[in-house]
Amino acid sequence: MSPSLVLIMLSLASTAESLIGKPGCQTTCGGVTIPYPFGISAEGVNVNCSLPGFEISCANNHSGGLMPVLANTEIEVLSLSVMPRPEARVRLPVAWSCYNSTGGNTGFSYGTVELNPTGVYRISDTHNELVVLGCNTLMYTNSGPPGRYRYSFYTGCMTYCNDSGTAQDGKCAGIGCCHVDIPPGLTDNWMQFGSTTTWSHVDQEFSPCDYGFIVEKGYYTFRASDLTSMSVKQTMPLRLDWAIRARNIRSVSMSCAEAANSRAGGYACVSQHSECVNSTNGPGYFCNCTRGYEGNPYIVDGCTNINECERPAEYPCYGVCHDTEGSYDCKCRRGYQNSGSPKEKDCSPKFPLAAKLALGISLGISFLIVSLLFALMVRQKRKMNEYFKKNGGSILQKVENIKIFTKDELNKITKNNSEVLGQGGFGKVYKGILADNIMVAVKASIEVNDARKEDFTNEVIIQSQMIHTNIIKLLGCCLEVDVPMLVYEFAANGNLQDILHGDASRRVPLPLELRLDIAIESAEGLRYMHSSAKRTVRHGDVKPANILLDDDKFIPKISDFGTSKLLTVDKDFTMFVVGSMGYIDPVFHKTGHLTKKSDVYSFGVVLLELISRKPTIYGENLSLIIEFHRAYEQENSGRTMFDKEIAAEENIFTLEEIGKLAMECLKEKVEERPDMKEVAERLVMLRRARKHAYGQGNYIEEIGIEATPKSTSSSATLSAPSTPATKHISNP
Questions:
Q1: Which DSSP helix (H) or strand (E) runs through 467?
Q2: Which of 61, 77, 269, 385 has the most crowded Cβ, counting Cβ within 10 A?
């Protein structure tokens, strides 16, 4: 590499960092980006790396790595953002109080931490909720300056249990668990417990401790086992709203108008193309980049222009797109016109077909024979153009990250469809080879008509944007044919169906670690489809045959999005229930209502096949799902169903946990099924536990299941404090 190229790369890296933090300041810690006004101070740096109250420290995470924490605290920072809304995602300890069989208190913690010494943060009321666990308990939090009472508001809820069997998994409505929204303005995490004289805990071994915590909405799902097994060292993620509330502790917070006009200086929105927004959770303001710009408005020149032409899904253009500063131009191609705006609808040719035909006839009879030959060529070309237009070519040709193949190019790639790889959801799949000798798979999509044109083009755009290791990549498409053909990357090891259930030539040894890896990475692909892509995609036909395996590491890739193409954008209902029997969600089959939980159900069947190596129907017409249900109902174990190849004693616990997770995915009630995020996280925790099971760490603790807490040590036993200043902090 030449010295000049090295200098250019270093300059670009320095420029990128300068758009995140102040020059010379550290902008990352433990994989978390630290954008200004947050900052990590460093020795020898003659610049304030953060605004007052926004200091971050880079601390040891006790596992040999680093993690960001709020300065002078042990509060772990998970992420920080400045746009489009100011937010800090952190972990805070739970509050707890434990009792012996006679109802005596053996230890407690209010969960209090020094969260807000300079008043920067407010606990987000829109993204968090207060959860209370326990039996016969009341817990609440409070905040705000005194008024009629000591605080501005008190928020909490109470729970009740009649016996050990009263609480139910997933039910958090007052029996063993309750939850409540919190109001804006909450500045700390201090919890209060109800009086023990009113709420007796005598002979309450089924709930020896009470817990209270504020947590990010949608993160926590109640389990009855948490009443006996939750650790008092548990932490929970929550979101904090922040704002520029004051220049120092003694200053009065200002609105946008006051801050911009203040003679004292210190206005935080310093970037050109930035704007001020008044805070809605507490006093003060925050900054955003104006429309057409993105970046960091708290840094000079931190807001940079967006190239709208590179984001056709967000900024449509049915003509030729040209980026401008803060916006973009969209004009029809030469020879085309539009009565409205090409940003809203397609352009059409300036000259109608009748005029073109009249011009051809005027050439005269003398050219009749030549004209007939030419007409045949024009007819073929016109037919391909009609297919191209019918299949959404005018839209898709502007999508930059996929290639539009001509019909001739496609015939060369597939050698006129000479080698069939298999049968897809809408037709055969052919093997192809690109000009650079890269192997591809070519398959038919849905037949496109006027009603489905928008669905098809949106689906291709969405698939082109789904860039994930565990999702088969769309390379391009051919639109000059009646049914459009899609070109995908090639998976060398075929599909999971053949590996699990194929003939002897396809079956290979599958250790539990490899099966767990396949399950995790497949779940990650589905999770990305459900929640990480720019638009939610529901697969609709999850099964081993649609999980392709690449290279010698058997990396899984989700394929065949045929079912999802039957759905119109932003709807999840279809009269066409397409999928494979044995994997179809019964709710989807009965109602045509396809949701993300429908994919969860199908994935539950795939998990059963991975741990049993049995197809959905096996033996003498036995159902895999029914037999697993019967095993867990009769024996509370799936041991009899596990594949003998992996059913060694040291694997049983992992197999049981996978089996139980599969049973949850297959629950009849959709709302009781986990989402793909939880499925992936629980599988990852199982893999992490296996890696540490025979080294440091405890297997059971690694996956978050603990025995009933033992009596707390003397350091955990405190008398009730008279003021909030007396705290008992349980560190994670």
A1: none
A2: 77
**What single DSSP character describes residue 530?**
I
Mean pLDDT over 31-56 rounds to: 84
Three-class SS string for 345-411? CCCEECCCHHHHHHHHHCCCHHHHHHHHHHHHHHHHHHHHHHHHHHCCHHHHCCCCCCEEECHHHHH
Whether the predicted model's global pTM rises above the 0.70 cut: no
Give the CA diameter of the chain.
Answer: 112
Query: CB atoms < 10 A from the CB of 576, how many?
Result: 11
Quick one: 496-697 is in which CATH superfamily?
Answer: Transferase(Phosphotransferase) domain 1 (1.10.510.10)
| Torsional sign, CA 461, 465, 469, 475 | positive
Query: How far apart are alpha carbons 28 and 20 in whole angstroms?
Result: 10
Please give the helix or strand (H or E) that residue 325 lies within, else none: none
Cβ-proximal residues to 324 (8 Å cutoff; 6+ apart), any chain: none
Nearest residue to 588 (alpha-carbon basis) of 681, 526, 668, 682: 668
Within 10 angstroms of residue 620's Cβ, the number of other Cβ atoms is 5
Nearest CA-CA partner of 255 in 224, 282, 236:
282
CA distance 305 to 289: 10
Catalytic (active-site) positions: 541
C-beta of residue 98 within 8 angstroms of C-beta of residue 201: no
CA–CA separation, 418 and 532 (whole Å): 38
Residue 468: which of 568, 539, 570, 573 has the closest Cα?
A: 539
Looking at residue 666, what is its pLDDT? 96
User: What are φ and ψ of residue 438, in 5° steps?
Assistant: -85, 130
Query: For residues 206 and 259, is the Cβ–Cβ distance under 8 A?
Result: no
Query: Distance (Å, rounded) from C-alpha 654 to C-alpha 603?
Result: 17
The CB density around residue 497, as the number of other CB atoms within 10 Å, is 19
Taking only the tens place, the pLDDT of each residue in 185-224 is: 888 888 888 865 677 888 889 999 999 999 999 999 999 9
For 266, residues 6+ apart whose C-beta sits below 8 A from its C-beta are 247, 259
